[in-house]
Amino acid sequence: xxRFLESAETAVGGKPSLSDVAEYAYAAVVPxxxxxxxxxxxxxxxxAGVTQSVGDIRGQAELCVQxxxxxxxxxxxxxxxxxxxTVYVASxxxxxxxxxxxxVRDGLAPHxxxxxxxxxxxxxxxxxxxxxxxxxxxxxxxxxxDLPP
Length: 149
Fold this sequence. Notes:
By secondary structure, the protein is α+β, with helices and mostly antiparallel strands.
């Protein structure tokens, strides 16, 4: 099972713990033999490839979480398997980043993998405001499930 380090566990070498205001773990320690699943950035696209919730950061973040979960399930994992996320928001406004983060945080709850939240100039699809990239653990390498083709 992956071990997540919260702020109280970060005091090392005589230095104090990292701040406890972070709404995520500071580190994830993957068990020996676990496989790693790298998920491409989940975008707010429907099955036809059309950007949804145009102009709505929260709506796009919600769809990104759903699409991230679908990708993970296809790989034999789930949101609880995430060991790291990176959330990209096409905005320089901190309020927009926080709005996206709140949706992602709530969508992953009670799971709290280490996460990075970034404001970027633009994302790849027309009208896209949010993208979530994930890294997850799967089953140990010697017990891989039969994944869909």
